[in-house]
Amino acid sequence: MKTLTRIFSVVIVAIWTTAFSAQAENLALVLSFENYESIAHPQGALANHDALIAAYRAQGYEIVGGRDKNREQFQNRLRVFAERLTGADKVVMHISGQVVHAGNQTWILPVDASPASLVDVAFQGVSLDFLMQFAAQNSANSVVFIGTTNRSFREIPGVSGGVAAGSVPRGVVLISGNHNNVTRAVLDDFLSPGETVSDALRQNRQSLVSVGTIPRNLSLSENPYQADIARENALGLSRAQRRDIQSNLNTLGFGTGGVDGVFGARTRQAIRDWQADEGRRATGYLNAGQINLLDRRARENRASFEQRDRAYWAQTGARGTRRGLQDYLERYPNGLFADRARRELAALEGGSEQNEWNRAVREHTFDSYQRYLRRFPNGAHSDTAREIMRQLGGIVDDSGMHDSDAPARLVEARLNLNNGARILVEMRLASLGYTTGPRDGVLDARTREGIRFYQRDHNMQVTGFLTSGMIASLLLNAD
Fold first, then answer.
1. Phi and psi (nearest 5°) for 114?
2. Judgement on whether residues 50 and 119 belong to the same structural domain of the protein
């Protein structure tokens, strides 16, 4: 015997699009069941009933609705709904209530249902399978949402709460989750103007589960930006071009949440913010002129940053004085000349770095390279020293060094990257247009510069040292 341990709040949304009625009105069936005769404690299914009706009306839907209907009234609402289907452009079925299943059969229970057996369930409930088949016959594009709550109903042999596992009819997508999560997703995402069902699912993938396939451009809402979408789609942007756009947005301070070539909700918002900042219509979709403008603005921003960096270096560090080098590093701790400034400053603060390095090489011991690093943690040979120390079987510990980069350097060291991994990093940076040294696995000053620019362009903490997050980002950006 199975125990029915859940009460279910169900949301069923089925959309049909008729090829010959593009200008027809939208239609929505909105029914909510809460006050069951056989249940002492209401489940809250009516709480969002009015909000859902208002949201559908705002998107241009004609409503066929009702609260707490019995089986006869439920069937009557379905008949009215069926009579109005002809010529409808978008059709939505949105039903909240209890759901039970046995085997691969599922039923929605009206408020007068009080089943004590599987036979009672079959005769007192309305078949969800029938509704999905009904939807599939009227369109190739149907979406079914199921929201669940955790409430005890009664024990019925062979019957369990929820929707039966299994396939759905062709052209139907079944989406399930906690009923509060489903309601929020419908109100906030699925009915959001211009949002596609695919994007809404992606935003709610941690709280909703889907079965079936849905067309990428299917939307429950009216889209005021259809012409803008068409213009962007006509550009045929490759994934690499989309990554460039995301990188440019990040350079200008409009965070995209990643540079992966996928234009999700955060990238669309970044585009809207940039468009608004430029005094343009904020649609979230780009045309060719805007892409060129965005690229120019980003290049100007990078050039301006580099120009200021170089100019300040000429005024301070280029003179080779201790004060000048310190002033440069204070303003540009990760600047174009930061590594050079640290090396020169270390040399000024005592001893010959090259002599110390020659001594370390002659002795060729872990301690000799450690001694070099303690005096010159950012020296010209510091990365080579660390690599040799790792090859000698020791653990490189930067914690005791007088080095402002020590925390970031330690984070990178704990990644335990082998030479092949470091070469891969250099190759990925170079393929994305960032400066690196030779592809030899030695993260020299030029490679550090490329790392810093990558971090800046992707809204990461700019240190010039690798982190697991940056490596993951580089791999995600791979073609």
1. -145, 65
2. yes
